[in-house]
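Appendix B, example 12.
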Amino acid sequence: MELMQAILERRSVRKFTDQPVSREILEKLADAALHAPSGRGSKTWKFTVVSNAEAIAKLCAAVGKALGRENYDMYKPVALIIPSNDPENDLAHDDNACALQNIFLAAYGFGVGSVWINQLRDCCDEPGVRAVLTELGIPENYEITGIAALGYADPDAPKGVYKEKGEVNFVE
């Protein structure tokens, strides 16, 4: 698949099937994340790949409790890639965002659906959420910018529509 095609066609998927994403594809998505740009080449990030349904459910429950949202489920993905980063790196959130974009585009190239889960940026230090993140091997002080929720798109999933917003200004 050509890169421009992936950029122009990829949309967030908010309803997944229960078909697992292979370990091979998850490894390639993690590799895509590792190859993302990083400010000053710092690469202080860590990527945690979770495909265990119980661990995903436990994280969803903790986040839902922190947000006061009963039955929070991150759209029921079969896998997550969680970029976390050292808060001492002042570009940590930017670096993680670049890594997430690489994951989303690579996932689309493999036919895997994805959606950015952004709630953890504000609640990753809530005690119940942090406890689950620690169980997953994420360092105690590392911050989360977003999560890549992954899975194969349910055929009944609403099709994302491109919304033209923003502005492009050329100065020649």
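The chain has one domain: 14-151. The radius of gyration is 16 Å.
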